[in-house]
Specification:
DNA polymerase, domain 1, 5 helices, 15% strand, globular, iron, metal ion binding, 2Fe-2S, 2Fe-2S-bd
Length: 177
């Protein structure tokens, strides 16, 4: 990340399996880089303070609020946005479940909800406990409704489609909502 100009750095990252090298202002967030410079407008700007989850993307496979990450801090990483979760011809199972369970309502929060849910299912499969996990030493966490709601609590839905969102996630995770 070197540049000849003060306050500007070269950022190299892979977004949705496509490599990019861009010069960016050191103050630019990953969210703004994705939306303004790379056209990944599926990632939404909600609160711009890390409180709503609309900007959630996968950074190295882990969910992050992209409005809180500086683009220069993400240099060298792999980023997956909602545009990259399917395989190009088929929807991701969570995308299909959101459609089947009417978990999208207005759709503004849906990209962040889906990216967060993808990582959350992986976290639970890896045995990461939450505040409501019954057995913090379990090798695998059961994703029932309470677990899903706790783990998705950083993603807000202004339409109130939580019941449908939880059902969609439970459907894919094999849990019971």
């Amino acid at each position: 990340m070197t540049s000849q100009r003060i306050g500007v750095s070269t950022v190299r990252l892979v977004v949705n399996d496509e490599p990019h090298e861009l010069e960016v202002d050191n103050r630019m967030s990953l969210l703004d880089l994705l939306r303004e410079r790379l056209g990944a407008t599926g990632t939404k700007k909600g609160c711009d303070h890390g409180q709503c989850g609309a900007c959630t993307v996968l950074l190295g496979g882990r969910r992050v609020n992209s409005c809180l990450i500086l683009a220069v801090a993400a240099s060298g990483a792999s980023v997956t946005t909602i545009e990259g979760v399917g395989d190009g011809t088929e929807l991701h199972p969570l995308q299909r479940a959101f459609l089947e369970h009417d978990g999208y309502q207005c759709g503004y929060c849906t990209p962040g909800q889906i990216c967060s849910a993808i990582a959350m299912i992986e976290e639970a499969a890896a045995g990461w406990p939450s505040a409501v996990s019954a057995d913090v030493g379990a090798a695998k966490v059961s994703l029932d409704g309470e677990e899903i709601r706790e783990r998705m609590s950083g993603n807000l839905c202004r339409c109130g489609a939580y019941v449908n969102i939880v059902a969609a996630i439970a459907d894919v995770a094999g849990g019971r909502a």
